[in-house]
Write a structure and sequence with these properties.
Layout: H1 3-14, E1 24-26, H2 35-49, H3 65-70, H4 78-81, E2 86-94, E3 102-112, E4 115-129, E5 132-136, H5 139-142, E6 147-151, E7 154-158, H6 166-183, E8 191-196, H7 199-206, E9 208-211, E10 217-220, E11 225-229, H8 238-245, H9 257-268, H10 275-288, H11 294-299, H12 305-334, H13 338-349, H14 356-370
Parallel strand pairs: 1-2, 7-8, 8-11
Antiparallel strand pairs: 2-3, 3-4, 4-5, 4-9, 6-7, 10-11
Helix pairs in contact: 6-8, 8-9, 9-12, 10-12, 10-14
Bound molecules: zinc ion (ZN).
């Protein structure tokens, strides 16, 4: 599957955050006659299928204390595989021959006509805590031997084979400081920044032996945690850093992705492309798809994710030109729904929903011409 197709899945998944896991099946590779395997199976089944949301929230007795003390979102695999689909427990194996800890592998897949469509194979750890089996994320175990370099407010982690690029790290640290200052957000604890050479290696670090390929950067903004699986962007994945730095501005009901992805793409680019290149790409898309309406971008239907990202960046640039950072910040603090997108266009540009498509196409053309 291409990166673009993956982005589509990603964009669509944004709208489904929080969907619980569906049925749970014990696969042929698990021996339920073995008492340890049976108890661990029960522990993960309880965690995945309970209708009580508190079992998946901080303070749960089903997850290890160590992870919960470090991270608000302690289960890093949650946004990747908990899509309300079937979970099939594949195997439970000791982490080493004399270990009291076990790896648990679980397949998450939607059932479709003629077969299944997997979202991922998850790897979690099981260990004993207070006389019961609890689950742990794979991250600490997978990265325990990794190196650390602190540059400004960013604490980089990387494996031995990674050649650390200090120049890129310094650009990223300066960028983080500048965005925080411009938007008046206080700088929090250091950003934990994990570097992997490929999207596949990134996913494995998080605890996904396999997932839909193509995700090159993943951020857990409230924990100031970022994973990058991209050799080119490496230490300076500015787009993802924007998500972290500006997360204190997020409205209570969450951002509309046009705004969150828009500001990250406007300031930090997207997929290695600069803002000007994104606008050019958007113009070409509009030429090739003359029937597409702006409403479809807002609704996140039909189009591919990057059209939403690029359109969001366009809106941010227009806000900035009209009212500077103050106008951009106002949008970040208020746009949490489709209705709020239209209110923004109305209040800032005097554009009603009926005129939005015309405005979207004209503005893209004007900005693309400017950068020629
Ligand atoms: Zn993003």
């Amino acid at each position: 599957m291409s990166v673009l197709a993956s982005l589509f899945v990603w964009w669509a998944a944004l709208a489904n955050a929080g969907t619980p896991v569906g049925e749970f099946t014990i696969g042929w590779g698990v021996n339920v006659n073995d008492p340890v395997q049976r108890q661990i199976s029960e522990a993960i089944e309880e965690y995945l299928t309970s209708s009580d949301p508190s079992v998946r929230e901080a303070g749960t007795v089903l997850w290890c204390e160590e992870d919960q003390s470090k991270r608000h979102q302690y289960d890093l695999t949650e946004p990747w595989v908990y899509k309300g689909v079937r979970a099939t427990l594949l195997e439970i194996t000791p982490t080493s021959t004399d270990s009291s800890e076990y790896w648990i592998k679980t397949l998450y897949a939607a059932t479709v006509q003629n077969g299944i469509q997997p979202f991922g194979v998850q790897r979690l750890l099981a260990r004993r805590e207070y006389g019961r089996w609890v689950l742990c994320g794979a991250l600490d175990r997978m990265t325990s031997a990794w190196n650390r370099q602190v540059v400004g407010d960013i604490s980089y982690r990387y494996p031995d084979e990674w050649i650390f690029d200090r120049r890129k790290a310094e650009v990223a640290a300066a960028f983080v400081g500048r965005v925080a200052t411009d938007f008046g957000v206080s700088e929090g604890p250091p950003i934990e920044y994990f570097l992997a050479p490929t999207p596949e290696a990134l996913a494995r670090t998080i605890g996904l032996d396999w997932t839909i390929p193509g995700v090159r950067g993943k951020t857990y903004a409230s924990d100031r945690l970022i994973f990058v699986g991209d050799l080119d962007q490496g230490e300076m994945y500015l787009h993802e850093l924007v998500h972290i730095v500006l997360s204190p501005l997020e409205p209570a009901d969450g951002w509309h992705p046009l705004v969150s992805e828009g500001v990250a793409s406007w300031l930090g680019g997207s997929r290695g492309l600069s803002f000007a290149a994104l606008i050019d790409e958007l113009l070409q898309y509009q030429f090739a798809n003359p029937e597409v309406e702006f409403q479809e971008i807002v609704d996140k239907t039909r189009h591919r994710a990057e059209v939403g990202y690029n359109s969001g960046a366009l809106i941010m640039e227009c806000l900035f030109r009209k009212g500077g950072v103050v106008a951009v910040k106002r949008a970040l603090e208020t746009v949490d729904s489709n209705e709020a997108v239209y209110s923004l266009l109305e209040s800032e540009f005097g554009i009603g929903e009926a005129g939005a498509t015309e405005w979207w196409r004209t503005t893209t053309r004007v900005l693309a011409d400017e950068s020629k």
